């Protein structure tokens, strides 16, 4: 029951609903990218994922990465698969041709990594940061650094890490203590410790390029004092740099991905970007990663759904209502409800994620500034929603899919319990889901009183006719944003209490919009559409009720104009 890419379902959304080829051919960079080319790339990607990556899922979990004397040995088959992956050009899919890339649209890369994550999340963690590292170095690195490292990263010959977290500095990066001392030759010596570093040490690639947040001697306190440094495992002359893996974590899941504790000891590194502006450069990596983490949630839910759906089509138990003999469990309403509900989340999330990937290319390549601004608005508002809501559903939905197996799901034989364990981390890394909700409400919605969000809703309405219920949700969220902006002016902690509910309400609204588009183009989507409206969307009212209660308490205690 290995994961199998469902290219027909992916193509139905990409080509039928989004009309991706036409959108992309409007961009000069992709004028020659037609549906036939995109289909060919996806078919080859699907073959590679199914034959080379999916079969390693179980060994990655059961054998796992192994640590001994500072070295990490990856599970059997992982290195060979990775060498085949980069040599076939897959990491370079969306990178610039002048850097060794293929110059193809970001949406093809997004679909590739969705399939990889569904097939083998642990293995996919290794190349998962490559594109973000590439973009970071390309936009912020010196010409000398780019000449030495950019093509190696772009092609995937060398893997990369993002070294932010320290024991005392998780979401609050202002607490980072790692130091960097300037040297006479223009390099720096980095010293400090980092934790939770995915792929900090391994044997997949011959070198590992670490991007490290650290403080210069004259750095001001807090996050504005952080600088970013490139510190490779192996120096240009082949010597081992002062980067040491002290241990790998024993984790709930993702056993095939080593999560490392790294010690930087007088490590030679080079500044990336400007001094004290390291977060600006690092966020290029993090923003690229957040879309892909949202896709991980979708992918893991798809993988869980595939297993549950296949099992339900084989397992016979009891009589379904109206049946005269024992039935396949897929005939039972409880099982149909689980499977149809997760199908709605997967397909709706895919549509939103694929459109986000297309909008990323619009930002880079569209000749019209107004269109680029609209694309930036979409990505700014939708990316944190995808990351938070779909990783949450990836975990909860995978647990629901395990329920289809009954007791058989709780044992290792069927592999569904691994997906549940692996999925849990997606809600935590690349900015916890709580951080995503705060980012959406406090940084993206409230500063303009919800104007940008309202404009996004107007653009969605312009795409085609909408059901009355969805139009009403748009109006409710607009009004809510305006009221929250006012209430926050005299109760500044209010948005923090309601941020998660606001994000979930926006997610359900976007999911309904996506479902409306899919149902209009896909006649056989009746069961997911019914599940969406019957069992998913009613949660919108609950989230609004929670926010309304907090607002009512705040507005009742609001100061009068005279008192203010």
How are the elements arranged and paired?
Elements: H1 7-17, H2 20-25, H3 35-53, H4 57-62, E1 66-68, E2 71-73, H5 78-87, H6 106-119, H7 121-124, H8 130-140, H9 143-155, E3 159-163, E4 179-182, E5 188-198, E6 208-215, E7 226-232, E8 243-248, E9 259-272, H10 278-312, E10 316-317, E11 327-328, H11 333-365, H12 369-404, H13 407-410, H14 416-423, H15 433-445, H16 451-462, H17 468-488, H18 494-521, H19 526-536, H20 539-556
Parallel strand pairs: 3-6
Antiparallel strand pairs: 1-2, 4-5, 5-9, 6-7, 7-9, 8-9, 10-11
Helix pairs in contact: 1-11, 3-6, 6-10, 6-11, 8-9, 8-10, 10-11, 10-12, 10-14, 11-12, 11-18, 11-19, 12-14, 12-15, 12-18, 15-18, 16-17, 17-18, 17-20, 18-19, 18-20
| CATH topology descriptor of the domain at 7-66 and 74-140 | Butyryl-Coa Dehydrogenase, subunit A, domain 1
Shape type: globular
Give Rg in angstroms: 24 Å
Instruction: Please identify the top-level CATH class of the domain at 7-66 and 74-140.
Output: Mainly Alpha
For the biggest sheet, the summary is: 7 strands, mixed
Helix share of residues?
A: 55-70%
CATH architectural category of the domain at 7-66 and 74-140:
Orthogonal Bundle
Distance between the termini: 65 Å
Q: Can you offer a commentary on this structure?
A:
The protein is α+β, with helices and mostly antiparallel strands. Among the domains are: 7-66 and 74-140, Acyl-CoA dehydrogenase/oxidase, N-terminal domain (Butyryl-Coa Dehydrogenase, subunit A, domain 1, Orthogonal Bundle); 157-276, Butyryl-CoA Dehydrogenase, subunit A, domain 2; 432-556, no CATH class. Helices cover 55% and strands 12% of the residues. It is built from 20 helices and eleven strands. It has helices at residues 7-17, 20-25, 35-53, 57-62, 78-87, 106-119, 121-124, 130-140, 143-155, 278-312, 333-365, 369-404, 407-410, 416-423, 433-445, 451-462, 468-488, 494-521, 526-536, 539-556; strands at residues 66-68, 71-73, 159-163, 179-182, 188-198, 208-215, 226-232, 243-248, 259-272, 316-317, 327-328. Strands 3, 4, 5, 6, 7, 8 and 9 form a seven-stranded mixed β-sheet that branches. A two-stranded antiparallel ribbon has the order 1-2. Strand 4 and strand 5 form a beta hairpin. Helix 1 crosses helix 11 (333-365), helix 10 packs across helix 12 (369-404) and helix 11 crosses helix 18 (494-521). The longest helix is centred in the C-terminal third of the chain and has 36 residues, at 369-404. It is globular, with a radius of gyration of 24 Å. The termini are far apart. The model has no long low-confidence stretch (mean pLDDT 95).
